[in-house]
Amino acid sequence: MVDVPTQAAQGRRIFWPSAWSVGAGLIAALVVAPIVSVFVIAAAPFWSGAENIWPHLISTTLPRYLSNTLWLMAGVGLLTACMGTGAAWIVARYRFPGDRWLEYLLLLPLAIPAYVGAYALVDFLEYAGPVQSGLRSLMGWKTARDYWFPEIRSLGAAVLVLAAALYPYVYLLARAAFREQAGAGEEVAMSLGVGAFGRFRRVGLPLARPAIATGVAVVMMETVNDFGTVDYFAVQTLTTGIFSTWLEKNNAGGAAQIACVILALVVALVMIEKLSQRRSRFYNMARGHRPVEKVRLSGRAGWLACVLCCIPLLIGFVLPAGVILRHAVDNAEAWLDPGLLLAFRHTITVGGIAALVTVGAAVFLVYGVRLSGRRFPRLMLPLTSIGYAAPGAVLGVGILVPLAAADHRLADTVEGATGFDIGLVMTGSAFALVLAYSVRFFAIAGGAADSGFGRVSPSLPMAAQSLGRTRGQVLRSIYFPLVRGTLASALLLVFVDCVKELPATMLLRPFNYDTLATRVHDQASLENLGQAAPAAILVILVGLAAVALLARANR
Questions:
Q1: Which of 214, 452, 466, 527 is the most exposed place for a label (fewest CB within 10 A)?
Q2: How far apart are CA 60 and CA 45, in angstroms?
Q3: Are strands 295-296 and 94-95 parallel, antiparallel or unpaired?
């Protein structure tokens, strides 16, 4: 006679957490901890008796930081919405010279970090650059007093550079939305005599609005995160305020308070984006879904469409890549600089370790959540994506302050027990960088692992378990072979983002520890673009690998 467990016993057995579930909970807590740390550090001056500069910030610099940030977000959001949506509509609805190439070439600005575009634009348009030099030679002007030229290092220039680098986020989502629209709506509008612009305004744009809003929200988050561009253009934003308050005024509490303002802006963006999607619901009512037939443009109309699509590509990729490449060729000796080779090695090492740790932790978390079979652990997945929304400077505050305190306590404890000074193990090495990268880009790895595991039929792991395989063996022999391609893509995307990340790297790198991103920033800040060019070229080449993967996935 076989004993059958009662439902109560089964319930108790299911409720008892496994090692996978406990590990998943610890990973989720580790990812969220830096955000919680920021709020604790920000509140500390109110109850610890430490210097509280919050009233001083409110009365002096904070309004300027906040105003510049809001203007920057609004300008970049509006410009990327126009550039990305317009380019997506043209390539999705029309055939014209070069349309098949431009459909993928428009993604190339993703390979150029915004701060590299800023250095290239200034070099191209400054007084000694080719544009002004050519104008003086052509018009016979002798000095800058003889003519007027727009101020290059300004808020407007920062908006242009960031928009040119970030519009592909809107373009990707808008193009997918336009592609998925049924042809019936377009045909009805055409039969009623509605012109091309009218069809875009009344049919295409309303249906694609949720996707466009999502892309603009992502762009605004990336705008808040930017440090290299605004710092080079001398635009004081909330992110630059964190650096100046912490590094120049040596006040971590004030930096954390500014970081809380940034987090409030990010949360507001996410809420607005979610509310806009919840209020807008559009469905395809056609039983036989037919895609929209592209209209062939000939003559001037076709070439005009080609030129319009080329404008953002020229500003976002061709100009910065061309300027940087020219400097890299003119300064060939800079490729042999030992500092460049060391920065390259640091970048590959830290980025590679961070990518492996991030994807491995994401796989463990997703698998542990799926094994639990409960609703509450499922909430951990969206919670761990908060790190991607948080700017790198915010994570730097939330990680470095508690980690430095723990590091000093550990060193004092070991020295007191053994008499040996081990130094700063975590903040004195690349450990803090790896942790920051893992937290910042965990959402990419978590989303890829979750979608990959979701495509595996539940019958396969159940059959393996019925044959006596353990959960670890099921993960290794069933899931890994089926999601290997997805995880490899996640590894590449996380690695590329680690290579380009600047704010967190600036705050958390050990002394004299350069990466490619920090080397580009440091050399360009010294107006030494020739020395910065080789590192920038390497960053762009790494970014191109991610763009190629993205283009392949969006065919």
A1: 466
A2: 19
A3: parallel
pTM above 0.85, yes or no: yes
pLDDT per residue as tens digits for the range 107-130: 999 999 999 999 999 999 988 889
The C-alpha angle 492, 496, 500, rounded to 5 degrees, equals 170
Element (H, E) at 95: strand 94-95
Report the DSSP beta bridge partners of residue 94.
295
Q: What type of residue sits at position 40?
A: V
Q: Which of 399, 338, 345 minimizes the C-alpha distance to 515? A: 345
User: For residues 524 and 120, what is the distance between their CA atoms, to the nearest angstrom?
Assistant: 10
Q: What backbone phi and psi angles, to 5 degrees, belong to 384? A: -75, -10
Classify 514 as helix, strand or coil.
coil
Contact by Cβ (8 Å): 427, 407: yes
Mean confidence (pLDDT) of the chain: 85
Residue among 540, 555, 520 nearest 317 (CA): 540
SS3 content of the chain, % helix, strand, coil (to 5): 80, 0, 20
Partner residues linked to 95 by β-bridges? 296
Please say whether the dihedral angle defined by the alpha carbons of residues 102, 156, 539 and 259, taken in this order, is positive or negative. negative
Which H or E run contains 340? helix 338-372
Coil, strand or helix at 237: coil
Q: Hey, what are 412's tokens? A: 């004092």
- CA proximity to 162, closest of 65, 77, 238, 85: 77
Q: Which residues pair with 296 in a beta bridge?
A: 95
- Asked if residues 316 and 112 have their Cβ atoms less than 8 Å apart, the reply is yes
CA neighbor of 506 nearest in space, from 246, 234, 267: 246
SS3 label, residue 175: helix
Tokens of 164: 């040119």
The tokens of 280 are what? 């807008």
